[in-house]
């Protein structure tokens, strides 16, 4: 999670919402990404999406069945859907997202009967630091 938090801090410095994500397999980092919708002019350029794409390219496969995703914020519905489609083994995330989250909030995507893959989910990892990054980022813009 420390690596994902570092990516989130870099995103904040670049003017992006501070979210970072890391995909790992067997103790090895496959991808480190940060939010980049503004930089890339792409509303789908969430940290999780970018990390999943990069890990898939690195492995040469669309399935990440033996991979774990570490992300600083509870994934939204789009990212949760990508996590399910990629067959991510475990999801670790920091801060909950009561407005936009889709794991323990909102649609609770992995609990839906139509969801074909459910990763093991571990919430609250680095929650304090992840939440503080987000609070400080948005406070500075208000």
In short:
This protein has 142 residues and is an alpha/beta fold. It has helices at 2-13, 37-40, 47-59, 77-86, 127-140; strands at 20-25, 28-34, 68-73, 90-95, 120-123.
Describe what you observe in this structure.
With 142 residues, the protein is an alpha/beta fold. 37% of the residues lie in helices and 20% in strands. Strands 2-1-3-4-5 form a 5-stranded mixed beta sheet.
Task: Write the SSE topology.
Elements: H1 2-13, E1 20-25, E2 28-34, H2 37-40, H3 47-59, E3 68-73, H4 77-86, E4 90-95, E5 120-123, H5 127-140
Parallel strand pairs: 3-4, 4-5
Antiparallel strand pairs: 1-2, 1-3
Helix pairs in contact: 1-5, 3-4
Helix content: 25-40%
- Report on the biggest sheet: 5 strands, mixed
From the spread of the alpha carbons, the general shape counts as globular
Rg, nearest Å:
14 Å
**What number is the mean pLDDT?**
97
- How many helices? The count is 5
Topology, number of strands = 5
Strand percent estimate = 15-25%
Structural class: alpha/beta
Low-confidence stretches: none
The string of secondary-structure elements, in order, is: HEEHHEHEEH
